[in-house]
Design a protein that fits this description.
This protein has 2 helices and no strands. By secondary structure, the protein is mainly α. The model has no long low-confidence stretch (mean pLDDT about 85).
Length: about 90
């Protein structure tokens, strides 16, 4: 099973390169409609990649903010318990 994984990765990588080279040759096509559509495909691929990176970055920031919120809630709970304890101590 371990030996199949690198082979599959190479197959997918090769297919990806082949697809990429097909679009690149289409951009240079003598047919203006094909060339224009191939340029649109390349542009959209680039935009998708950019958007995926933005989403990944945003997810990372959201996760960090969630962690910060959780820590603040723990601190608040501890501070409230501490306050209760001090009030009881002051009454004694």
């Amino acid at each position: 099973m371990l030996r199949k994984t690198p082979i599959l990765a190479l197959v997918f990588f090769g297919a990806s390169l082949q697809s990429c080279s097909l679009f690149r040759s289409d951009v240079n096509s003598e047919n203006p409609a094909v060339a224009a559509q191939a340029q649109r495909v390349e542009s959209l691929k680039s935009q998708v990649g950019d958007q995926e990176r933005l989403v990944d970055d945003a997810k990372s920031r959201v996760d960090a903010e969630k962690d910060r919120l959780k820590a603040l809630k723990y601190q608040l709970k501890g501070a409230q318990q501490n306050l209760k304890g001090r009030k009881l101590e002051a009454k004694s």
